[in-house]
Amino acid sequence: MNGITYGVTEECYTVGSDRRVAYGIAVYADADTTGTASIVASVRDISSDKKKVEEFVRLCNSGGVSLIHFSEMVDDFLWDDVSC
Fold first, then answer.
1. Beta bridge partners of 47
2. Which residues are bridge partners to 12 per DSSP?
3. Whether the Cβ atoms of residue 61 and residue 34 lie closer than 8 Å to each other
4. What is the pLDDT of residues 64-84, one digit of tens each?
5. pTM here?
6. Looking at residue 31, what is its pLDDT?
7. DSSP class of residue 65?
């Protein structure tokens, strides 16, 4: 699989009068080679902090993180987010 690219996703949740925005990560394959991309993996609602998710995505893209390590990277991100 060539051309793995990570991106930020955004979803809005509304319950009653409460509204919440949540950010996640999508993994796209072959975005650079074909001009179109297929989502091959994703994790929804990992944080309400857009800047944190954007930084995580930037690190994944600049580090060339392989798809096989994606779930480990997300686990580490979530663990760091709740650790004191």
1. 23
2. 21
3. no
4. 899 999 999 999 999 876 544
5. 0.81
6. 63
7. -
Structure-token pair, residue 80: 């760091």
Strands in 1-84 per DSSP E: 5-15, 18-29, 38-47
Q: CA 76, CA 56: separation in Å to the nearest integer?
A: 11
Structure tokens at 61: 């893209």
Count other C-beta atoms under 10 Å from residue 27's C-beta. 22
Longest dimension (CA), the chain: 44
Residues 6+ apart with CB under 8 A from 37: 5, 28, 29, 30, 31
CA 37 – CA 19 distance, rounded (Å): 30
The 3-state DSSP class for residue 51 equals helix
Structural tokens at position 7: 């991106």
What's the CA gap between 33 and 10, in Å, rounded?
Answer: 25
